Amino acid sequence: MSWIRGRNWVFFQLITGGLGRSVTPVPGEIVILGPAINVQTAPAQIPFATLTAPVPGQHFILRRAGVAKSAAYAWTAAPHVSLGTVAPWTNIMINSNLATAVQQGSGETEPDLAAYPSGTVLFISVNIAGNNATANARVYPFIIGHWKTISIC
Amino acid sequence: MEERLEFNAINVGVLGYITLTTLTNANPALRFVIREVGVMKGIGTWTVAAIIAVGTNATANNLLPNGNMTTIPLRGRNETEPSIWAASSGTQIRLRVLTAGAVAVGTPLVDVYVLGRWQNITAA
Predict the structure, then answer these.
(1) A108 in a domain, yes or no?
(2) Assigned domain for A21 exists
(3) Which one of A71, A97, A137, B118 is most buried, by most CB atoms within 10 A?
(4) What's the structural domain count of chain A?
(5) How far does the CA of residue A43 sit from the closest CA of chain B (Å)?
(6) Which residues of B touch A25 (CB under 8 A)?
(7) Maximum CA pair distance of chain B?
(8) To 5 degrees, how large is the angle CA A40–CA A41–CA A46?
């Protein structure tokens, strides 16, 4: 089994929608998986990625984002989280109840696209703390999109 | 193989229909299964928000229904679930401008992308 930044292939396919469908990644498609984020303290805003353009002047067209809960233990308190680049940290994903159900997260995509310049820092905002049976409550934010040189009007 | 078709610098300052592409495959049995369409505004100071649609049907709105692009910079619109469409070779993808957009300086341009793949769909 191959591993991607500490998560296995099944996890990766689950959050990107590829499991069981043999989807070949779109050329240039990028999945940015954040590190494990502890959500036992709220309120808190934690940076999880900094966008870096492969070509100067390009913007990251952010098409989809979400947060997956760690799967190993029973959750006893549902974390509420959002994703964003500026206060109130909701411009990528609105405040979302991740529930206590196992292996369930939250994703948001439509209807808006957003383009972010290189250097943009992405934050996860923990708005209500979560917890689990081992007091090791962690979540994994992710975004999906592609780099593009946007036309100049 | 999944493909992203891109159509750049489309002028949305004039009302009407614009043909983005004609889907073409040498194998007539294949259909292009479209699972997402998105439109990003060009970089500029938008003074009038364009309202646009994208589609393969007569009114060009089955892939992305009439969407207000707003004047907010670096924002666009996309459409994914719940519908996907299987378009045969020869199908045109068109963009329709329902309300013309405007920018303070220059031409109101948008960039369009289409995500999908050629697939041999099982016959019923």
Answers:
(1) yes
(2) no
(3) A137
(4) 1
(5) 28
(6) 2
(7) 53
(8) 105
CB B107 within 8 A of CB B28: no
Please compute, for residue B49, the number of CA atoms within 13 A of its CA located in the half-sphere on the CB side. Answer: 13
Q: What domain range is B15 assigned to?
A: 3-120
- The ipTM of this complex is 0.89
C-alpha–C-alpha distance, residues B93 and B40, integer Å: 17
Q: What is the pTM of this model?
A: 0.84
Question: Which residue of A31, A62, A150 to mutate against B (max B Cβ within 10 Å)?
Answer: A150
Number of compact structural domains in chain B? 1
pLDDT single digits (tens) A63-90: 989 999 887 678 999 999 999 999 999 9
Chain B: closest CA distance from residue A116 (Å): 7
* Cα of B39 to nearest chain A Cα, Å: 8
CATH no. for residue A101?
A: 2.60.120
